[in-house]
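@channel sequence for tomorrow's demo:
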Amino acid sequence: MLPDFFLGLVSMVVSAAYLVVTSQIQESMLSDAVGAGGVPTALGWAMAALGLLVCARSLFVRASKAEGVAMVASAVDDGEKAPEALRPHLLALGLLVILAAYVVVTPYLGYIASTALLIGASARFCGMPFSRNLFIISILGGLGLWVMFDPMLSTPMPVGSLWGGR
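structure tokens (generated this afternoon):
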């Protein structure tokens, strides 16, 4: 279960980076006791805890010799099942890479462009064909979320350093 352990470690590293970024969220005029960074911080800690659970589970399964030997033997006997068993992990890792790229590019591209790219990349990665509809949904999604947070809820979203914003 080495892929599970690796996925758990990657999740914990990404959640640590995510928590560092969420600690820099500015408070808005609408802040309550939880604050603007409350939910993102809780999500970061939840992701770290789930990563730790995945690591622990992989070690527990590995310690169980009878079960572990049977799983390895079946994967070796049937070469087609081994890559198929990794597919969900690779899909999750791909989405995690897209989300990590979103966190990295948002300060430069700003909220609208980065969110539009996140929506488009996630939909494309999950199988949506590249089309005009994908482009329109991505742009409208980025704009719609910005309108909801920035002007309506007075939560300042980054404009992006490439555009000379905050």
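heads up for whoever presents: The mean pLDDT is 80.
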